[in-house]
């Protein structure tokens, strides 16, 4: 379980010469599924099995177990199954298909996660902005988890975050992405599948990293040019 990309590639290339026929390598990180297909094919030529296992659960997985999405040959899966059963909660692991399938399913999982996070974030911002109601976001998070349609573990985590800091004042609204959202959108395009919500949630993450958007400046300037709409001057203006 190392970061996707060069670190994974170097680890596998370093391990392979040290292994014997019948040995097994498991990539439990978030590798691009096409790389997992390639690695499985390359290792098979050496007699080495390979499983790509998408792993979800975050830091809480240590306490409650990890959800594992497994791709690879059935024999390799059966060899590793005792380990997987120990690490996962009940019904928390499954062999989902051939090599690459595990990381593909985890990629889509993370794309869905992007969209869910964005939906919750927008809802809480709308409530936070309605100042005359003085809404308690921690209380509402807890309430929604009591049988509502949108109850979830993410809402439980939201309640905990608002409990620690109701206004989230110490947190900068800068949201990184680790790649899976981009890959999910790319896969949707390759398969001609419309995925506007996941795509927009990814683009919102890009937007969060801009202290000031040049595109917004262009829009403001154009509105001023064609309609005489007032523009706000920057500190440099």
Give me some keywords for this one.
237 residues, alpha/beta, four-stranded mixed β-sheet, 10 helices, 4 strands, 9% strand
Task: Describe what this molecule looks like in 3D.
With 237 residues, this protein is of the alpha/beta class. Helices cover 54% and strands 9% of the residues. It has ten helices and four strands; from the N terminus they run H-E-H-E-H-E-H-E-H-H-H-H-H-H. The protein has helices spanning 6-15, 33-44, 61-64, 74-87, 101-129, 137-144, 153-164, 180-190, 196-208, 214-227, and strands at residues 24-27, 49-56, 67-71, 93-97. Strands 1-2-3-4 form a four-stranded mixed beta sheet, with helices on both faces. Helix 4 links the parallel strand 3 (67-71) and strand 4. The longest helix is centred in the middle third of the chain and has 29 residues, at 101-129. The termini are far apart. 25% of the residues are buried.
């Amino acid at each position: 379980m190392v970061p996707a990309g060069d670190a994974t590639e170097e680890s596998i290339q370093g391990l392979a010469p040290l292994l014997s026929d019948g040995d097994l390598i498991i990539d439990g990180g978030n590798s691009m599924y096409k790389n997992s297909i390639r690695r499985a094919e390359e290792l098979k030529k050496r007699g080495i099995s390979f499983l790509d296992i998408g792993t979800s659960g975050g830091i809480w997985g240590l306490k409650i177990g990890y959800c594992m999405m497994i791709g690879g040959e059935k024999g390799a899966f059966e060899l590793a199954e005792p380990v997987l059963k120990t690490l996962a909660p009940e019904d928390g692991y499954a062999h989902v298909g051939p090599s690459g399938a595990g990381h593909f399913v985890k990629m889509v999982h993370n794309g869905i996660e992007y969209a869910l996070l964005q939906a919750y974030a927008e809802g809480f911002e709308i409530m936070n902005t309605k100042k005359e109601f003085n809404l308690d976001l921690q209380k509402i998070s807890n309430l929604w988890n009591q049988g509502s349609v949108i109850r979830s573990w993410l809402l439980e985590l939201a309640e905990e975050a608002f409990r620690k800091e109701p206004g989230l004042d110490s947190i900068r609204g800068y949201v990184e992405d680790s790649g899976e959202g981009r890959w999910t959108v790319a896969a949707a395009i390759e398969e001609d599948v419309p995925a506007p919500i996941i795509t927009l949630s990814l683009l919102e993450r890009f937007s969060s990293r801009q202290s000031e958007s040049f595109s917004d400046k262009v829009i403001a300037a154009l509105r001023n040019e064609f309609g005489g709409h007032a523009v706000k001057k920057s500190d440099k203006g």
